[in-house]
Amino acid sequence: MKIALVSPLCEAVPPMFYGGTERVVAHLSNALVDQGHDVTLFAAGGSCTRATLVPFRQQALRLDPAPLKSDLAAHLVLMSEVRRRADEFDVLHFHMELLHFPFFEDIAERTLTTMHGRLDLTDLPEAYGRWNEFPLVSISHQQRKPMASANWLGNVYNGVDDALFRVPARPSGGYLAFLGRIAPEKRPDRAIDIAIRAGLPLKIAAKVDPVDRAYFEGCIRPLLAHPLIEFVGEVNDAQKPAFLGNARALLFPIDWPEPFGLVMIEAMACGTPVIAWRCGSVPEVVEPGVSGLIVDNEEEAVDAVKRAVQIDRRRVRASFDRRFSARAMATAYVELYHRLLAMSLPAVA
């Protein structure tokens, strides 16, 4: 099957540091190639893939040091090129939310759009209602709820390459981990409180976006003075397995309708149990007592930290292998590609 994967240009594929959508696209593109498909990846310059790469811009938008740049202009050029080459592919798989809709209205039946973000935003229902001929894929069933009547073709959980992560033979287990982004909805303040109350070190590996700089400086930086708290900054893919694998548990104390939460399955791939708030996709991702523990408040989280050591790290990894490997994700998408093609075939008289 000839498949085009279209990625946002904000980060390379995979990202050098933080980045969810582009990291999923990276794992998907390689897994599809490994399964024998002819895959072309449209992505930012600096991307690395086993697919045929069509790069745009010299580098990803976030890493471009130019003080003035146009996200919209870059993505419009990307859309134009994909449209020009559309007839080369059986399926056009977009990871761009809805930017491509006006360009591909006449061939919507050959497109698939994976929704990676939250859907409870003003104006989204009207837009997706306007272009309701485009088949959509959710990354959790929880993600769909604000737009339950949209044109959902299927649900595919995110996956990562199992070969990139392993369960350490002797994990230190001496600290708790927080990995992701410093933002109010991610609740690093909760993670800090939990670690201090549990009497365990917390290592925070996270990026700070410009929009969250004031929150970091005003709310989080003062908390970093505590001797149990260490701010590591962003970690790359080479550093991530050791950071997650040697942790006693990953803290995922979110306060928003998380569509998926890639860091949870990255921790599971390292055999590290996840302690997560009952919010967003968490109940779909974490198997209580198997891959982690789900909590509703800080008291339960502190207790979960004590209980996490009883979880067999081999079972955590087995849960990941069964549900969230890149192979499993690619297989699920191929099934949807076949459904899409079958639906677009002309009726036989």
UniProtKB/TrEMBL annotation:
It holds the Pfam family Glyco_transf_4. InterPro entries: Glyco_trans_1, Glyco_trans_4-like_N. Residues 174-316 form the Glycosyl transferase family domain. Residues 18-128 form the Glycosyltransferase subfamily 4-like N-terminal domain. This is Glycosyltransferase family 4 protein. It comes from Variovorax ureilyticus. The lineage of its organism: Bacteria, Pseudomonadati, Pseudomonadota, Betaproteobacteria, Burkholderiales.
